[in-house]
Design goal:
Structural class: alpha/beta
Number of strands: 7
Helix content: 40-55%
Distance between the termini: 42 Å
CATH architecture: 3-Layer(aba) Sandwich
Strand content: 5-15%
């Protein structure tokens, strides 16, 4: 297994997963390096997947010959979190990252492990991608995800994901029919969880909370070298930047839903977080 797909809902801990993997030997995990607009031009899912296969091959070659790769980054590094720890004048948190070439300053074997992370697009294509790559997703307490969505300047705050909707017409139609912003958010998040519940083995869906509690060692399901990780990690589900009143409202919406959240989380976990 030298190439793998990384995905998950936005604000679930996927950037942290890349950060941890990049700390391992003979491993590179890139944060949203591809030009997703090209997917739209290709149209057919088979053609898009072939483009992804080609991108992996091209990126592997570039890394081995030059040590460079394209990725979202902050000052040349893939961080554990790209969003600021404070709100702007708009009341929202903004992303600090930019896209460009980064240097991978480690020795790589010809069969090094390369992971590429995209969220909405890879989730929309997951049924096709699982036939071509090992695929892993990270999920998080659904209430924490929604609370984070409402604290950041991203389309998810409006319950939309333009990239995913371009690749999944059924999702686009469903979201367009929902007038309430919070109901759209719950539907969009349920779409992510349903995909992982249906298309991935249980071992390939990592809970953010377990990543934190294990200091990253639970990533050993991806690569055995993660067994050595001992990162001092903090659980951000109780982030002080989250609106506690809104979390109570969102908790009610989630608990009324019978979506695939509950394959990965108990309703008591959402209730407990809403009461903090």
């Amino acid at each position: 297994m030298s190439s793998l797909i990384l995905t998950g809902p936005e604000r679930s801990g996927s950037t942290l997963m890349c950060y941890l993997l990049n700390g391992l030997p003979d491993t590179v995990a890139l944060h949203e390096p591809m030009k997703i607009r090209k997917f739209y031009r290709l149209g057919e899912r088979a053609a898009i997947c072939q483009e992804i296969v080609h991108y992996f091959a091209k990126t592997r070659k570039t890394l081995l010959t030059s040590g460079y790769a394209v990725s979202q980054h902050v000052e040349g590094l893939i961080p554990d979190n790209t969003f600021a720890g404070e709100r702007t004048a708009s009341g929202l948190r903004s992303s600090k990252d930019e896209k460009g070439y980064i240097t991978i300053a480690k020795k790589l074997s010809t069969d090094f492990l390369l992971g590429i992370k995209h969220l909405g697009p890879f989730t929309a294509l997951l049924e096709d991608l699982t036939a071509r790559f090992p695929c892993y997703a990270v999920v998080r307490n659904p209430l924490a995800i929604l609370a984070s969505w409402n604290s950041v300047d991203l389309p998810m705050r409006e319950g939309r994901n333009p990239a995913a909707e371009r690749l999944d017409a059924d999702l686009a139609r469903a979201l367009a029919r929902i007038t309430d912003r919070f109901d759209r958010q719950v539907h969009l998040l349920a779409w992510y969880f349903e995909k992982y519940a249906r298309l991935l083995p249980e071992s390939a869906v990592l809970r953010y909370e377990n990543v934190i509690a294990s200091q990253g060692r639970c990533l050993r399901v991806i690569t055995a070298s993660a067994e050595t990780l001992q990162e001092p990690l903090a659980n951000k589900n109780k982030n002080e930047l989250y609106d506690r009143g809104l979390m109570a409202t969102l908790s009610e919406r989630l608990l009324q839903s019978e979506a695939a959240f509950w394959k990965f989380y108990k309703k008591e976990e959402v209730e407990a977080l809403s009461l903090l």
